[in-house]
Write a structure and sequence with these properties.
The chain has helices at residues 2-16, 25-29, 32-35, 40-57, 59-72, 81-91, 97-112, 117-131, 141-153, 162-179, 185-199, 208-219, 225-238, 251-263, 268-284, 289-294, 296-303, 313-318, 321-337, 339-342, 347-357, 362-371. The chain is mainly alpha-helical. α15 runs parallel beside α19. 42% of the residues are buried.
Length: 382
């Protein structure tokens, strides 16, 4: 076994990593059983120095191999983040599209092999350092998107338990700081989509930084309908039993979105924003009786299946995937938590839910499917 390991290590360090052309990822995956047997000493003294040298010389070639190798290892790589993070982060802003993609994969592979919270936090800070200009101002939005995507993908790191929630708070602070200065629509939407990944990890409350910035971000003159929808979807991802009470200060901002849609019910984009906001509000209504009573007008609107714009044919036909997913969440919450207000004939709601289940978009179907068994239809006619 020792001879086999030495031979394979020689292949990695003398042939694969220094290669002048990209090595097939499929071929590298065949080394997985061997890579899982490596010790920290072997990785640190034999593999890491060669990796570092190869990435400095030809990152466009070496990064894909490095990412594949890291993904196949069984070692906890937390202690090596300081050695690898700068190179990965720097190449996330490469002018070459393929190099940036390889850097994302390598960053995520490293994150999945880290169980230490401080290591992943260091990796996050390294990425945002580059994003904020530590290596020069970034003018290309594609570079920003790569950096944001890598940071968002670190939700799948090896950190567990309370450490994940702590990382979510750190990530939120970094993302909000970026949102405060960014103006490009596509980049903002990507940032909010990635922040939504972290928002789903909040444990007991939504961070104050997000609560404070949300109304401001929504109200900016430069904020488009697409960006507002992204803000609302991000908030929706953060809402669960333990975090609902911290979202109460956002009720006025959310209610304004719904009121705006009532006045412009023919605009599908505006109504889409409203369905996101309404889905959030009906969840927040479950905080306590006083909160529910303060939202009585909204609840009256969303259960009025004849007048509410969410259940009308025009909206259902023109709404995008994200809006239909929020509509599914809205209907499910109403039928489970507010069934006493729905009445005895919720046919338009059920029809809307069925349309979501039969959507041509797979993400909508996947979102709607698990919700339906939660609904106890027999309660609707009690």
């Amino acid at each position: 076994m020792a001879k086999v390991k030495k031979f394979l290590l020689d292949v990695l360090t003398k042939t694969i990593l220094p290669s002048k052309s990209k090595v097939s990822v499929v071929s590298l995956k065949q080394l997985s059983p061997f890579l899982r047997l490596l010790t920290h000493e072997e990785f640190k003294t034999l593999l890491l120095p060669v990796m570092t040298k190869a990435m400095l010389r030809s990152p466009e070639i070496a990064l894909s191999a490095v990412g594949s190798i890291l993904a196949s290892m069984s070692l906890d790589l937390s202690v090596y983040v300081s050695d690898l993070s700068k190179t990965f982060s720097t190449n996330l802003r490469s002018k070459d599209d393929n190099t940036r993609e390889d850097a994302i994969e390598a960053t995520l592979a490293l994150g999945r092999q880290c169980s230490d919270q401080s290591a992943v936090e260091s990796l996050l800070e390294s990425i945002f350092g580059v994003l904020n200009g530590s290596e020069g101002k970034i003018s290309l939005n594609t570079m920003k998107v790569s950096l944001l995507t890598a940071a968002g993908g670190l939700t799948e790191s090896g950190v567990t338990g309370g450490g994940v929630a702590n990382l979510a708070v750190v990530a939120t602070k970094l993302y909000v700081k970026f949102l405060e200065v960014e103006a490009h629509e596509g980049t903002l939407v990507t940032a909010l989509e990635m922040l939504a990944n972290w928002a789903a990890k909040y444990s007991n409350q939504i961070p104050e930084q997000f609560i404070s910035w949300f109304p401001k971000g929504m109200a900016l003159k430069t904020t488009t309908s697409g960006v507002r929808s992204a803000y609302l979807v991000c908030l929706a991802c953060s809402l669960h039993t333990n975090t609902l009470s911290s979202a109460v200060p956002l009720i006025p901002s959310l209610s304004k979105v719904v009121d705006n849609a009532v006045k412009q019910s023919a605009q599908v984009a505006i109504v889409s924003e409203a369905v996101h906001a309404a889905a959030c509000l009906v969840k927040i209504a479950g905080v306590d009786l006083a909160t529910e009573q303060s939202l009585a007008e909204l609840l009256t609107l969303v259960v009025d299946t004849e007048k509410c714009m969410f259940y009308q044919e025009k909206f259902l036909a023109g709404a995008g995937a994200a809006a239909l997913q929020s509509l599914t969440s809205l209907i499910t919450t109403l039928l489970i938590s507010h069934v006493d207000k729905v009445g005895s004939t919720p046919t338009p709601m059920l029809r809307s839910l069925a349309i979501c289940m039969m959507s041509s978009v797979s993400s909508v179907r996947r979102h709607a499917g698990p919700h339906c068994p939660q609904i106890e239809f027999c309660q609707l006619w009690k």
